[in-house]
Amino acid sequence: MEPVTPEVPSTDLSPGAPEPAAPAAGEAPSGPAYRPRHAIAEWTLTVLLLLFGTTTLVQAFVIPTGSMEDTLLIGDHVLVDKLAYSPSGPVSKYFLPYTPVKRGDIIVFRYPVEIKQTYVKRVIGMPGDRIRVEAKTVYLNGQALRESYKVHKAEYLQSYRDFFPGEPTMSLSPEGLDMLEKHVVKQEVVIPPNCYFAMGDNRDASFDSRYWGFVPRENIIGKPFLIYWSYDAPTERLAGSALSWAHLKDLGTNFFSKTRWRRTMRLVRGAPVE
Fold first, then answer.
1. Which domain range does residue 53 map to?
2. How many domains does the chain have?
3. Buried-state track 54-70, b at ≥16 Cβ within 10 A, e below 16
């Protein structure tokens, strides 16, 4: 459906019912530091959203691919805070926890190539940041990142995926080509204003900004804050909006054995990119 051929299906996030569905020593970084919320504050927000939330405030999604493993697993059903990055009003700013987008945040956004699709990734670069990848290591503004959340499940190196930016080894979308043609300076991608560079935690199997370019600020929907249920099911049963008969039968037979109880009601937190 799209010109890029990633290692994982292009669909990255599917809404839960009844929502509609969607289909892998240098300059110090600038910008706001990542400050995780206090646990009590997080749970307070969670309870408030669960009690009073509607699709205006919170939205349910299911994770159908493994691009964010092991932070988010296939079959994790998450609630997304749609107010997190909303502009604060003169009164609401005193009551609602509005925050700017920060490096390390996990964001849900409309896929820039096809806005009807919804993706989930981690913010790695902010506007003005310089990004490059060398042998699987991400360099941010000249400094190698220590990313505790990422995993590498492929032992081999791939020329474009693991040495970025470089000569593409596959067809890229127009947005990806534009990034390489207009935003590369001295072998680093420079992120333009009001845009972000997002990558999956399962770095070898994530179809992310390396392939389709930047996430515009206006595409960001919100941030996942709670795994309310996690069920062990394959991608093909989770990628669409309608529940298949096979999936319903599986739920009826294996609900208790395939539910990942340890992940149920688990808070989803970002992590500092450093």
1. 14-267
2. 1
3. eeebbbbbbbbbbbbbe
